[in-house]
């Protein structure tokens, strides 16, 4: 049966990188028999400009109808002066919440070809393969009360609430343990249980869930230590499970282990593996429109879509190996280029074309 894929390009470099990922999807459609129909929608600043809101009802409906969603990035200086509730980022948070996409999988995998692109020593990062499982629809991102209020003395006070209930913790823990069973069978749960009650409960529930997974070993780490350990010895980790905000921060950190934030894809899944797929990076307004952004995180997000939502394991492998091949061939966007005359500097578009060419050559 034909599956519907919603395409939400968003803002900044979003449209450029999504164009390349769509080229890959269309190649699979035309040449590899992938039975999908692509439908475009507006989100973020692009949606605000046209409709006044960051997540118009049509886009939400498209998201609900679709079997999977491909998203670029949202946000930019143009929309920063707007009221908080209608800023681009709210559109992204709203679609995550409305679709129940609570499980955010962020693999940090180092392609051997990029060992020199990381700012860390190659021996520290070589062979790196971590999966960060970030809770995505709860925690301080969504907790209430929240806001900015005026105190009696006239000063303003900003406040947010970090809240997790047992069911929310249990379901994300299960995603982490299920993933670990298929990998190296280690879960490290990252919290701040020495200070925050909400993550004291987090630790307790994760420990309880672990009993259902006897083949997986569980460790716990405070988030400050985890940040340090990720830089000191990242290969000690297999699966990291953590809260919404800690996962946001640690996944940016982990991206630098792999050479560039332009390399990290993500999948945000609901309880039935319906998903939204997006690079972990933002809209990079400083380089938007210059045809120099790295489209590989978005193309690798397509691979995750094929694997998790479209049931196309083989095509997912093909896309990932095509990405590896273009890196082997020495193609580099500026973010992953090092001083090596065997490398060729390429544009966003040239990188996408190269991935498509490798895929076609396999026919
Ligand atoms: C991410 C981004 C988003 C987040 C922003 C754009 C709201 O940083 O997906 O990591 O904080 O979740
Ligand atoms: Mg982030």
Which characteristics define this entry?
alpha/beta; Isopropylmalate Dehydrogenase; two-stranded antiparallel sheet; 14 strands; globular; binds 3-isopropylmalic acid; binds magnesium ion
Describe the protein.
It is a single chain. This protein has 363 residues and is α/β, with parallel strands linked by helices. It folds into 2 domains: 1-106 and 264-363, 3-Layer(aba) Sandwich (Isopropylmalate Dehydrogenase), CATH 3.40.718.10; 129-257, Isopropylmalate Dehydrogenase (3-Layer(aba) Sandwich). 40% of the residues lie in helices and 20% in strands. It has helices at residues 14-32, 45-51, 57-65, 88-98, 122-125, 166-181, 197-210, 223-232, 244-257, 296-308, 313-328, 348-361, and strands spanning 3-10, 36-41, 68-73, 103-109, 129-135, 147-150, 156-159, 186-191, 217-222, 239-242, 265-269, 275-279, 331-332, 344-345. Strands 2-1-3-12-11-4-5-10-8-9 form a 10-stranded mixed beta sheet, with helices on both faces. A two-stranded antiparallel sheet has the order 6-7. It is globular and about 65 Å long. The two termini are 23 Å apart. The model has no long low-confidence stretch (mean pLDDT 97).
């Amino acid at each position: 049966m034909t599956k519907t894929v919603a395409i939400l390009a968003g803002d900044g470099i979003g449209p450029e990188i999504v164009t390349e990922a769509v080229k890959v999807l269309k190649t699979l459609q035309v040449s590899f028999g992938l039975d999908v129909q692509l439908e475009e929608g507006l989100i973020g600043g692009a949606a605000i400009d046209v409709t006044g809101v960051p997540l118009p009802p049509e886009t939400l409906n498209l998201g609900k109808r679709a079997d999977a969603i491909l998203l670029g990035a949202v946000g930019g200086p143009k929309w920063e002066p707007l009221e908080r509730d209608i800023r681009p980022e709210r559109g992204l948070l709203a679609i995550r919440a409305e679709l129940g996409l609570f499980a955010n999988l962020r693999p940090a995998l180092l392609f051997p070809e990029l060992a020199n692109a990381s700012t860390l020593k190659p021996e520290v990062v070589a062979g790196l393969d971590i999966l960060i499982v970030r809770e995505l629809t709860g925690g301080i991102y969504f907790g209430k009360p929240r806001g900015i209020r005026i105190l009696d003395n006239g000063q303003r006070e900003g406040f947010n609430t970090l809240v997790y209930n047992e069911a929310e913790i249990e379901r994300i823990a299960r995603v982490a343990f299920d993933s670990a069973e298929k990998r190296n069978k280690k879960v490290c749960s990252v919290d701040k249980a020495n200070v925050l009650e909400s993550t004291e409960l987090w630790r307790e529930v994760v420990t309880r869930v672990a009993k259902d997974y006897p083949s997986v070993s569980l460790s716990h780490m405070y988030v400050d230590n985890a940040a340090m350990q990720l830089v000191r010895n990242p290969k000690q980790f297999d699966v990291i499970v953590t809260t919404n905000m800690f996962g946001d921060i640690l996944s940016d950190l982990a991206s630098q282990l792999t050479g560039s934030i332009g390399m990290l894809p993500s999948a945000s899944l609901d309880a039935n593996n319906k998903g939204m797929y997006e690079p972990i990076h933002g809209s990079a307004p400083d380089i938007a429109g210059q045809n120099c952004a790295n489209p590989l995180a978005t193309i690798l997000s397509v691979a995750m879509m094929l694997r998790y939502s479209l049931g196309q394991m083989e095509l997912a492998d093909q896309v990932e190996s095509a990405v590896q091949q273009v890196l082997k061939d020495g193609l580099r966007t500026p973010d992953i280029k090092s001083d090596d005359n065997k490398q060729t500097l390429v544009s966003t578009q040239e990188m996408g074309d190269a991935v498509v060419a490798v895929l076609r050559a396999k026919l």
